[in-house]
Amino acid sequence: MSTAIPSAAGTTPQPSALHSQMPPGPQGYANAQAQAQHIFRQKQLMAMKQQQFMQQQQHLQQQQHLQQQQQLQQQYLNQPQAQLMIRKQQMQQMQQIQQMQQMQLLRNQEQQMQQQQQQQLHQEQQQQQQQHMLLQQQQQQQQQQQQQQQQLLLQQQQLQRQQPQPPQASSVAIRPGGASATPVIKSEDSPTAMTISKAMGLSSGNQTSGQAVLRLLQFAEQLSPGEQAADRSFWDNFVQDFYTPSSTLKLGLLNMETNEREVFEVNQSLLARYFHTHYMCGISSIQMTLEKTAEYIFPGGIMNVECPRVVATGHLMVQFVMSSEGVWKIEHMDFSSQGFEEYINRASIRSEPIPNSKKKTPPQHSVFPDSPINKWGLPSRAYHILQMSDVAERFGEVVFHSIVTGLGPQESLGAIAFHKQQELSKDVEGEDSKSQMMDAVYNMAPYNMAPSPIVKTQTGARPQQQSFIQQQQQQQQQQAALRQQQMQAAVLHQQFQQPPTPHYQSAYPTNTSNNNNSNQFTSTPTTSPMTRKRNSIASDVKSPVARKRTNTGNNTRK
């Protein structure tokens, strides 16, 4: 190993033979790399010393130049002609010095460029060596993976030979590169519940094309398990294999008779019961045929599969997430039905004679069997499960209140209902106060304004205004009835005879002798604001027919 150290005179360093020799092993390569770094640092120190030495020389030259200028100035004052000659010489010397400095700067720049090029070459060589090492490691890993794959295949073949019946669903798709694109589905009959992707230890970021579609096809194959469909444990394992603990199934149903739509959302805890109920209602198989599938890859390990049309005539969207076991599982499934068709087997159609027929051979008419599905396209029991899931989701507030307060379900429901009734009563009281202000303005109007045209004449827009008043009276009656119902419900929930809010006072107290001594919370108004308002409106505003009768009666008396 030979190295060259640059001298102080600024000689260029000779190339070292460090790069020409390859280390025999990792330790030798590390030692050689450390020596090369040490030599490179020494060169840098020498270059820094040279720069410092040059700077010192320049500083001395500048000092000498200043001293010479001072001397020339003194001589110029004494001898004008001699000073001019000396000045010319000084200018020439200064030009020469500047040229020398520029040449030195150029040389320094060239040296720096050469050093940078050497550093880049050194880095490139290191990168090439690292890439070579990585390639070797990858080749070794691929060989190990191929060996493991062969061992797994041999084990599976041996197990299949030993067992009389093979597992029902174990579809594996292996790519030519050795990486598995689809994980193995776990079933009850298979003894090994593991995936090829997990055994090989490959990451899902490199190869994700088509994995979600294949997983969805496996899901569709397992929807018709045959004799195992009546076993609830099969569907529990099915949901555990294909769904995450937080997954949901969103179903949009269409009523073919009324074109009404309903959307239901089923949690993971009810999925096994939902699928099992279909087969318990007499369904023989559930088939899912996908067309025009589109796969979308999103950041965060999420893959979406969308199908614009399914056999059940609807739009399907499935979102997959990679689980900790290395298996793609369904996080969210959304199916929006656009209609359904029901097919009847010919053998199930019966023919019966038409009654009250006068012919010797009465004609036959066909009798169709009862449909196992309802107007939403589902069995009635499966539809009830969807309704239960919808109600359970809406009653989450009651469950939360029961857990926090420790009360029972009925008490929690009563407390929430009472709270909401109080809010409604406050809204109704606000509307009553507004209606009272309108009554006051209406009563003050005859004193401040001209008489109304309804009272003055019998022509004009009288019927429209009368209908508007009738609408107001109907609305007020409905509000009063609603308020009474709310108060009765509040009394039932509280089980007391007191009003729900202590600040409720009688707005219209009665003129009795014990009025001053009575409690403000127990005194009851004789007439409510709503009834008083209705009476005032009925007394102030009369119908045109009633006015006409009163006017004619007065005239006849006269």
UniProtKB/TrEMBL annotation:
Family annotation (Pfam families): LIM_bind
InterPro entries reported for this sequence: LIM-bd/SEUSS (IPR029005)
Comp. bias intervals (Low complexity): 509-529
Bias (Basic residues) ranges: 545-558
Region span, Disordered: 1-31, 158-192, 351-371, 453-472, 490-558
Biased composition regions of type Polar residues, renumbered to the chain: 1-19
Name recorded for this polypeptide: Uncharacterized protein
